[in-house]
Design goal:
The complex is a heterodimer of chains A (110) and B (120).
Chain A lengths: L8 E4 L5 E6 L11 E5 L6 E4 L13 E6 L2 E6 L8 E9 L4 E4 L3 E5 L1
Parallel strand pairs in A: 1-9
Antiparallel strand pairs in A: 2-6, 3-4, 3-7, 5-6, 7-8, 7-9
Chain B lengths: L2 E5 L3 E2 L5 E8 L9 E8 L3 E9 L3 E4 L7 E6 L4 E6 L8 E9 L4 E5 L3 E5 L2
Parallel strand pairs in B: 2-11
Antiparallel strand pairs in B: 1-3, 3-8, 4-5, 4-9, 5-6, 7-8, 9-10, 9-11
The chains are: A mainly beta (110), B mainly beta (120).
């Protein structure tokens, strides 16, 4: 059971928008910034969003992140077939003294 | 462009020590504020942070592994290391090394990962 709760899967048609939630608590998301990662099968996670809403160089603006209270959200707009992957949120938990990841969300393009 | 590469045995016997090396290229491991971390992934537990190290000065370990984990750095070889003692079947995973911006709380460069099996 992950400290950060993500839906196991989300789906939408090509061109549409998906939203992935990451629910935490005051000791993690409520206290620290959130990062998001994209992972394709058999490859390493790739940084998608850091410090809640910033995109590394090369990440399209179709990907956006936000944080409110003890939850964070990753939005993917203009969904493409190439966006089919697993997405993970991550932050630090002060009570656990540990970096924690969400359980991951599989995005499917219908 | 920074690159990381894990190396080590792909098979470890139960109760023995898992030792992995991460070689960093395209940048110095001594760079200020850059921590270096290990993350593993199993189908059952997803992504799990193991620990992060800054030069040889600061180490942070996952409390669940603190009694078994040791990390170190060799700046002359631009490498950092993971030792996990007394391994069991639950330690079988893909192990990733990554550059960890500890203070800003994200991993921005990852190695491709190395699968490690635990079996006698």
């Amino acid at each position: 059971q992950s400290v950060l709760t993500q839906p196991p899967s989300v789906s939408a048609a090509s061109g549409q928008k998906v939203t992935i939630s990451c629910a935490g608590s005051n000791s993690n998301i409520g206290f620290n910034s959130v990062s998001w990662y994209q992972q394709f099968p058999g490859t390493a996670p790739k940084l998608l969003i850091y410090e809640n809403s910033l995109r590394p160089s090369g990440i399209p603006d179709r990907f956006s992140g936000s944080k409110s209270g003890t939850s964070a959200t990753l939005d993917i707009t203009g969904l493409q077939n190439g966006d089919e992957a697993d997405y993970y949120c991550e932050t630090r938990d002060e009570s656990l003294s540990s970096v924690v990841f969400g359980g991951g969300t599989k995005v499917t393009v219908l | 462009q920074l690159q990381l590469q894990e190396s080590g045995p792909g098979l470890v016997k139960p109760s023995e020590t898992l030792s992995l090396t991460c070689t960093v290229s395209g940048g110095s491991i001594k760079r200020t504020s850059h921590y270096w971390g290990w993350v593993r992934q199993t189908p059952g537990k997803g992504l799990e942070w193991l620990g992060s190290i800054y030069l040889s000065d600061y180490t942070y370990y996952n409390p669940s592994l603190r009694s078994r984990i040791t990390m170190s750095v060799d700046t002359s070889k631009n490498q950092f290391f993971l030792n996990l003692s007394t391994v069991a079947a639950a330690d079988a995973a893909v192990y990733y090394c990554a550059k960890h911006m500890w203070l800003r709380n994200y991993f921005d460069y990852w190695g491709p990962g190395i699968p490690v099996a635990i079996s006698s």
